[in-house]
Amino acid sequence: MQRQNTSEPGKDLGRACDSGCSSPSAPVRIEGGPPGTSGTVFRIPTMDCASEESEIRNALAGIGGVRGLGFQLSARTLRIDAPAEVLPRALDAIRQAGFDPQPVTPFEQADQHAPMAEGLGRLGASLLLAIAAELLDFFAPETAVYKGAGMALAAAAIWLAGFSTYRKGFTALRQGRLNISALMTVAVTGAFLIGQWPEAAMVMALYAIAELIEARAVDRARNAIKSLLDLTPDTAEVKQPDGEWKEVAAADVALNAIVRVKPGARIPLDGMITSGNSAVNQAPVTGESMPIDKAVSDLVFAGTINGTGALEMRVTAAASNTTLARIIQAVEQAQGSRAPTQQFVDRFAAIYTPAVFALAVAVALLTPWLMGIGWMEALYKALVLLVIACPCALVIATPVTVVSGLAAAARRGILIKGGVYLEGAHKIKVIALDKTGTITEGKPKLVATEVQPSPIPQAEVLRWAGALAGHSDHPVSKAIAQGLDRSIGQLEQFTALPGRGIQALSDGQTLILGNHRLIEERGLCSPAIEARLAEHEAQGRTVTLLAMDSQVLAIFAVADTIKESSREALAELHALGVRSVMLTGDNPATAQTIARQAGIDDARGNLLPEDKLTAIEDMQGRYGTTAMTGDGINDAPALARSDIGIAMGAAGTDTAMEAADVVIMNDDLRRIPELIRLSRRTRAVLWQNIVLALGIKSVFLVLSIIGGATMWMAVFADMGASLIVVFNGLRLLKIKT
Question: Judging by beta carbons within 10 Å of its beta carbon (0-12, 13-18, 19+), is residue 393 exposed, middle or buried?
Fold first, then answer.
């Protein structure tokens, strides 16, 4: 019953994305596994758009032996799963497509800013040459010498700024594709040939500079989550066999090694505390604003900050597999998923660009007859249209916004596994919630103790109860023992009574500690006892009784208490117009009591995993988009069947987190209304960007046809619109709550 995954890894992260970034069906298998899976990893510095990914996939389509490809546009890397003898042919095919693959290790961080730094000097020189060509054309007399010098300056400027553009453009034209590089190649070359060489040079220089600025801005969104890597120390203090402590590279620390973390230091690896206690700031992983008290047996995460106490911990995960590393890997994979709006934009762009190209051809051929203008002027109008035909702003609007939203969520401890879920969360109409560990703490607590009248002193009764409860592994018994805080006494003839309780001999007395059924079977119930039991059970409590052969000595009520954050979260969900339903395996009376206390609209009890699945399907048919929240194996089918599955990450099982689309790292239900608000904000920004991009394009299309736009204006309009939508999308990174 697993929901079909409609996302495609490794797509649609780009800066000035080439026209029609939608990719055709891949001719080879694509895997989206995290770094470190099988294959050889290559960095491709100029691969920053889904259309360029498509070009590489098409180039490798005919290479036999390529088993799979894994694209990471966020890091500009490609993983090729192929035998060693096949790799050279695959790399040659990539080079022939106009790209330069460079081998890297799977975990090596791609230096995304190196190409920018290397290009700054070249683009600066290009801009100066273009300005010189403009000045020479404006001030110099119309002589062959000055004109030749101006053309030479312009040609040099175009070459310096447009080498990469021309290389991609010619490749695209040979393959019959219309991307931004092809459009700019035709437009700039055409302008140069009709005598507008100063303008052609300036247009290419400005385009390249604007592209560089845009790429840097988009990298900010791409790297927002990668900044978390800086939170993890490079080294750890590891205990050696001789008892000494030694500084070791975190990547080399073995599982189960003992690591020491000094006060105020960052925790280098995931682990379980073996000595010490401290308050730990977990904000980088869980988004919690307040430090959390940690003691022996508690888990801590890499990248979190130790407080004032020294800690020793046993390492539970390698550096490449810490919770923080897995969050980063998951978000990188999520960046490649295609949100619904993005799919619409890609389809629109694939139609828009050829349509405007056809319009440009029509303007060049028909306006001399229809409007009585010269052929050169008509050709110039057509070239302006070609620049405007680039759908950069439109296509880039969605991936930048989605990546910013994913990063903003991750910083708050909300791990979203794809843009489709980030955008889809705004449609949630009803949310189903598991009870134990989701709404409640998942840890039974002793909430009431009633010692019955008897000749035996109260202290003795409680000592007996603590002794019996302390010898049992049952969660209810553990809660009683912990609540009574009594030292375990000596017991004889200890016997477990499956499904009922326990029996033992203490101080010569035969004692039983068990449930209602056991007391009834021993004939020890009375109307007064029955009344007290009914009252506790009506409040959703589990009742355990201590008795001797002749009478009941004490009643203990245990309950799974509601989390402090649950009521607030449910109130926020109701304010957002989202209905809540609790699905639990507990009895209906307990379910109704918890629902009433937490403020839940509806509660359904006595549900098996298949019953929860049926309930989800019923809600989908009745209300629409349905989310499911849970943390256990029994929740996995419902999580998978729901439109958006949300798992509690701290206490959740691996099965639940695997089946879910969203993971709440700190088990705080208040993150769910925060997810919905972020989704609504993201969708609003997406449509703002689409309207801005289309509006600016429409204005300049009209101006170019009626003669009111120049190539300068077209480039400024195109790049300006792209920068506007990029920075508008980046605003999501600054959302405080």
Answer: buried
Task: Please tell me the pTM assigned to this model.
Answer: 0.66
Q: Do 415 and 339 fall into the same domain?
A: yes
Residues 461 and 550 in one domain: yes
Strand, coil or helix: what is 143?
coil
Q: How many Å apart are CA 576 and CA 429, to the nearest integer?
A: 9
Kindly list the strands in the beta sheet with 299-300, ordered across the sheet, starting from the edge strand earlier in the chain.
245-249, 235-239, 258-261, 311-315, 271-275, 299-300
Same domain assignment for residues 276 and 347 = no
Find where tokens 């206390």 sit: 597
Domain, as residue range, for 260: 234-322
Q: Is residue 540 part of a domain?
A: yes
* Interatomic CA distance for residues 273 and 541, integer angstroms: 33
For 75-112, letters b (16+ CB in 10 Å) and e give bbbbbbbbeeebbebbbebbeebbbebeebebeeebeb
Beta carbons of 259 and 275 less than 8 angstroms apart: no
Q: How many domains does the chain have?
A: 3
- Given the residues 219, 270, 346, 434, select the one marked as catalytic: 434
How far is residue 539 CA from its own chain's centroid?
Answer: 39
Binned average pLDDT, 10 residues per bin, the chain of 737 residues: 36 32 31 47 73 75 81 72 87 83 60 50 83 80 74 88 81 73 82 82 80 66 59 86 90 91 89 90 65 85 85 89 71 58 69 79 83 80 77 70 82 81 91 84 84 88 86 80 73 77 83 85 86 82 86 88 87 94 80 86 83 90 91 77 83 62 83 93 89 82 74 74 81 73
Strands 662-664 and 644-648, bridge-based pairing: parallel
Pick from 461, 424, 579, 556: which is nearest to 501 by CA? Answer: 556
List the one residue out of 611, 614, 641 whose CA is nearest residue 628: 641
Please answer whether residues 83 and 65 qualify as being in contact, where contact means their C-beta atoms are separated by less than 8 angstroms.
yes
- Structural domain ending residue among the three candidates 540, 561, 582: 561
C-alpha 451, offset from chain centre: 52
Distance CA 133, CA 199 (A): 9
Same domain for 259 and 302? yes
Question: Which amino acid is residue 625, in one-letter code?
Answer: T
Whether 434 is catalytic is: yes
Tell me the CA distances in angstroms from 139 to 130, 132, 142, 146, one per residue in order.
14, 10, 9, 10
Could you tell me the CATH number of the domain that includes residue 477? 3.40.1110.10
- SS3 for 8-58 is CCCCCCCCCCCCCCCCCCCCCCECCCCCCCCCEEEECCCCCCHHHHHHHHH
Distance CA 164, CA 277 (A): 57
Residue 659 lies in a domain: no
Do 285 and 242 fall into the same domain?
yes
Clarify whether residues 486 and 514 are in a common domain: yes
Phi/psi at 107 (5° precision): -100, 0
Q: Is residue 202 in some structural domain?
A: no
Domain assignment of residue 661, yes or no: no
d(CA 698, CA 293): 58
**Comparing C-alpha atoms, which of 56, 42, 57, 47 is closest to residue 17?**
47
| Domain final residue, candidates 297, 322, 347 | 322
Alpha-carbon span 637 to 169, nearest angstrom: 49
